[in-house]
Amino acid sequence: MADTPGPGASEPSLDEQIAAYQREFQDLDPQVEKVVSALSRLNRRMNVAYGRQTAELGISNAEWEVLKALVLAGDPYRLGPGDLAKRLGLTPAAMTHRIDRMVAEGLVTRERDENNRVRVIVGITEEGRSKWLEAMRMASVFEEELLQDLSGEERGRLGEMLTRLLRRVEDAQPDAGGRLSDLD
Amino acid sequence: MADTPGPGASEPSLDEQIAAYQREFQDLDPQVEKVVSALSRLNRRMNVAYGRQTAELGISNAEWEVLKALVLAGDPYRLGPGDLAKRLGLTPAAMTHRIDRMVAEGLVTRERDENNRVRVIVGITEEGRSKWLEAMRMASVFEEELLQDLSGEERGRLGEMLTRLLRRVEDAQPDAGGRLSDLD
DNA sequence: TCTGAAGACTTCAACAGTAAAGTTCGAAGC
DNA sequence: GCTTCGAACTTTACTGTTGAAGTCTTCAGA
């Protein structure tokens, strides 16, 4: 039996995918396509890995994002929902909902700014801070493993090239906003 | 007025972010962090860019994903929902809904496999194929612009390094599945 | 051929995000 | 000192994804 092309195929390998692009759409530089496809696949895999780690701590990647933003903001470790939304690329409405949950879980606090009662201030709790720290520890181990095949010099070159690409898109797209969706 | 740290800050630059990590969590190799942070930011920006382009065609990135998978699958240009779900990293339930919409919009067809009536076959329509093609044309222009600052040799090195990283994660995480979330 | 088990998809209820319409407060002009 | 405008957040209704339960078909064994 069975020259059936196979119903059970899984995700094609990167090289198969590049070859398929050449077959179906010749106007595509395979070198460019390789960079772009590897970038999105890598990102997807990394998010899966982070998700497993944060799940062990009983939080989601989305919640970890909020904690990261608060810690990275520096000393008073407080930000308004609007600012948080900008940093995470979410709508303000989504931020409101996210904060609701995180307050209920004891990861952050929400209070009104007494100097300007239109504003709200979100702060990180002890528990939020400690979850952030554990997540960072796990993430740094994972990231070190991820890059283990690259020499120090290669890491530098890679970071530099990626930064150059990033500058390109950020110049073309200065507004941080924008809906997302996962792409392949 | 105003030594207030500022409510209106936007997303910090990559370098500011790296510096903040050094301040808050010294056990982090800044070189590693630069690579990782640049990767996720780049991905986010790229998805925003793709989203704008697909929106011009009246489809979403999610729908474009499905069209890509069908075209890349090759000749009969047909796949089952389960297989599609695996390739896109979605649950089967999400795939069912997505196909519902796309059938309603005339981008794909859904029929039962006559040889095995448990299975369903999703195929691409003329219109789906043509939207795919237009999206690819726009994407290839964007991607070429994105990489314009890199020489041919650099592009090769970048693709090769990213592939090496990808191999690392894929070995550690052979199952394609996994929920996602956008990370910073 | 009947029965049980497994596979492939769908349905359903709950959750997360978005857009657009509210609230509420602060600041500027009259 | 009112009134109007605008900013910051929230609410509401809707869209899309998930996990779990359900349906239908096939296949293997009795």
Any key phrases for this structure?
DNA-binding, homodimer, 184 residues, disordered N terminus, mainly alpha, 3 strands, elongated
Strand order of the largest sheet of chain A: 1-3-2
Strand content of chain A: 5-15%
- In DSSP terms, counting alpha (H) and pi (I) runs of 4 or more, how many helices of chain A? 7
Which regions of chain A are unreliable across 5 or more consecutive residues at pLDDT < 50?
1-8, 176-184
What profile does the largest beta sheet of chain A have? Answer: 3 strands, antiparallel
Q: What Rg of chain A is obtained from the alpha carbons, in whole angstroms? A: 21 Å
Mean of pLDDT of chain A: 87
The computed structural class of chain A is mainly alpha
The best one-word shape of chain A is elongated
* Largest two-chain interface: A-B, 96 and 96 residues
Number of strand elements of chain A: 3
Give an overview in words.
Two copies of one chain form a homodimer. With 184 residues, the first copy, chain A, is mostly helical. Chain A is 61% helix and 7% strand. Chain A has a three-stranded antiparallel sheet with strand order 1-3-2. In chain A, helix 2 packs across helix 6 (126-146). Chain A is elongated and about 60 Å long. Chains A and B meet through helix 1, helix 2, helix 3, helix 4 and helix 6 of A and helix 1, helix 2, helix 3, helix 4 and helix 6 of B. Chain A binds a DNA duplex (30 and 30 nucleotides) through residues 7, 62, 80-82, 90-98, 101, 116-120, 179.
